[in-house]
Amino acid sequence: MTRMSSTTTTAWSIAPEPHDSPAAVALWRAYYTEVSDRWYLLHEGRRTDPDELEREVAADSGDYLAPPGGLLLVARYGGEPLGTAGVRMLDPVTAELKRVFLHERARGRGGAALLVTAAEDAARGLGAERMVLDTRNDLVEARALYTRLGYEETEPHNQQLYAEHWFHKDLFRNDL
């Protein structure tokens, strides 16, 4: 079993947490609400239908973010849970970055980069040598973050319905 230590900065702390903890579930709902509303507002001029939101949030339990093949990190700022980043192993050397999210009120404080870096460290701890992810056209801030952190756009690695951009990064081990 890989042991993950927590990462702490002046006001941020990042640590593994069960994907079904109350904080993780609330953050998943906030994440899904934001990205779904953003898509619907852009494409249909409306917010997500509440019934659809409930169905979609419930349909993705996040079980794939549970050990031994995955984990979820929760970022807290001043003790308040405000962000997540998940890792799931796709094969023995490839991890997928999932559910990278930071509440809007916490953005601009360096938390997103800390979350992604902590997820990369966690993926290395699970044996990953490479990280992949997908995102959408309208999530321009996410694409800029991934590029700034050394991710390169690549060919599709999945057929996800809303995926429009795919990225990868080699995870060079710090201990070599």
TrEMBL record:
<dbReference type="GO" id="GO:0016746">
    <property type="term" value="F:acyltransferase activity"/>
</dbReference>
<feature type="domain" description="N-acetyltransferase">
    <location>
        <begin position="25"/>
        <end position="176"/>
    </location>
</feature>
<keyword id="KW-0012">Acyltransferase</keyword>
<dbReference type="InterPro" id="IPR050832">
    <property type="entry name" value="Bact_Acetyltransf"/>
</dbReference>
<dbReference type="Pfam" id="PF00583">
    <property type="entry name" value="Acetyltransf_1"/>
</dbReference>
<dbReference type="InterPro" id="IPR000182">
    <property type="entry name" value="GNAT_dom"/>
</dbReference>
<keyword id="KW-0808">Transferase</keyword>
<protein>
    <submittedName>
        <fullName>GNAT family N-acetyltransferase</fullName>
        <ecNumber>2.3.-.-</ecNumber>
    </submittedName>
</protein>
<dbReference type="InterPro" id="IPR016181">
    <property type="entry name" value="Acyl_CoA_acyltransferase"/>
</dbReference>
